[in-house]
Amino acid sequence: MTTAPLPWILHLDMDAFYASVEQRDEPRYRGRPVIIGGGDRGVVATCSYEARKFGVRSAMPISEARRLCPQAIYVMPRMAHYQEVSQTVMQVLHSYSPLVEQASIDEAYLDFTGLELVESDVRARAQRLQAEVKEATGLSCSLGLAPVKFLAKIASDMHKPAGVTVLAHHAVPAFLARLPVGKIPGVGKQTGLVLETLSVHYAADILRYPREFWERKLGKAGLALYERAQGIDPRPVTPYTEPKSESAENTFDADTSDPAVLARWLFAQAERVGARLRKGGRKGRTITLKMKFSDFTQITRSRTLPTATNTTRVIYETALALLHEQKNTQRLRLIGLGVSQFGEVPRQLGFFDTPEDPREAKLDATLDALREKFGPAAIVRGRIL
Ligand code: DCP
Ligand code: MG
Questions:
Q1: CA distance from start to end of the chain
Q2: Taking CB atoms and a 6 Å cutoff, what residues make up the pocket around ligand 1?
Q3: pTM to 2 decimal places
Q4: pLDDT digits (tens, 9 = 90+) for 201-232
Q5: Number of structural domains found in the chain
Q6: Looking at the structure, do residues 294 and 334 belong to the same domain, yes or no?
């Protein structure tokens, strides 16, 4: 007799993520309350477990945190850095399952269906994964292993930090009978109040009312809630596929062939596309120029660079060179550019290849940070570099 493999979903969530990265990088921060936040929002992004003892929480105004914990170390977030660490974590996860869904910067779902066929001790596999994340990043994470997504997410939160919580299939009904409804992802303040007036305290209590009742009361969310109360969550683990290219284009108010005007548009587009690539920590090798003429015909021209780039200047100059090569005299109604061919292994530089100019990367990073802080219109660099 063969039995169908059991569904297993693993949920990973890094512990005090931004704060742990800062403590890892700066030994003086270790064992101390560290609060990450500031900038224009003025709220706490997260804080170390040492700071949580003082009641500091995510999304709290920094001013309140200072009142609760004046002795804490306050650190501005370094988003690009956390993104990089996040990518390292995700790389480890991909060696454990072909189905990895990144759900936020510090959490992911993995489909482990059939796990018990390969390994009778499902917890052991989770523990190995946890150890490998620690080895690759120096950071601790918590894991939940359960038959469906929402239960895996609840489980990963149950023994933080550094916990591994396994919710076996046979244990689900008893678990739901004692699960406070507020723990179900998606049940916020408002739904919580509705449930309270109905004396629905635990997940299983939801089943005291029929499906139609919940649909009338809360619409789609009510139907989902009725499913969750039975341990049902049909959402599959959906791997995110990176966009294969990043592009920008503009249609003009009046058609033009003026080279200075076209160059200006290309520059603004290179800036936008470059910033998006840098934010995601991506680089591409192929630059594509797109032109649509007054008669609505359209052409694209591409050039592949020896090394992948995400610097504004390289993107702009390559697109501009492609434009000049066209020796076009027709008027354009649209111009655009794109960057593609991401993420291949860096190859050896040839004799005549120029590596990326570190000064350009630094300039881009500075301007990105200023725009992040003061808004996109705040900084316009001298246009023709
Ligand atoms: N974050 C944020 N603003 C929030 C919540 C979170 O900027 N309101 C950021 C900072 C966190 C990261 O997202 O480090 C991950 O969020 P988590 O909710 O997983 O919180 P932590 O990882 O910091 O702590 P925990 O150990 O509770 O997961
Ligand atoms: Mg976390």
A1: 72
A2: 13-18, 45-46, 58-59, 105-106, 160-161
A3: 0.69
A4: 999 999 999 999 999 999 999 999 999 999 99
A5: 2
A6: yes
